[in-house]
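Researcher: Next entry in the queue.
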Amino acid sequence: MKFKLSQNIEYNQAFFYEIKDGVYLNFLKFAFGNSDMISLCASRASLEKALRIAEKYGKPIINDIIDSEITDKTHCSIYRGGGIPVFYFRLSEAVKDFLNAKKSLFEYECNGSDWLDDLVFYEKGVCRLSTCTHEGFIGIDIEKLKAF
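Model: Structure for this entry, 148 residues:
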């Protein structure tokens, strides 16, 4: 799936420590109001294995997958020597509930070789909020945030 980064994306590692608990829930209100789709990366695997990982860690939202791909370049990383599966989900009530159940923007399963992470919010195909879980930073459309 092709996506574009917003021209107004700014990256900040300091957010890692601030976007949790109540701040996280308020932040989700912002994200939900400015997006219609999310994506999550899965551990390096075939799409078939990645789908099993998504079913394990994202069971409540598995029916909301609208697309998937294996890519060597995501919103935050370049993968040499093979790609990484990315799942795209419609921003349904089940997806919102799944995200609301987390306590942090960076709280995703990373157990050994099976994981889902790097949450991204899109609005009409444009990336509005990008996270890099293992590095602990986000990119955010600062103009949208100011309007919030």
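Model: The two ends are 28 Å apart (CA to CA).
Researcher: Noted, moving on.
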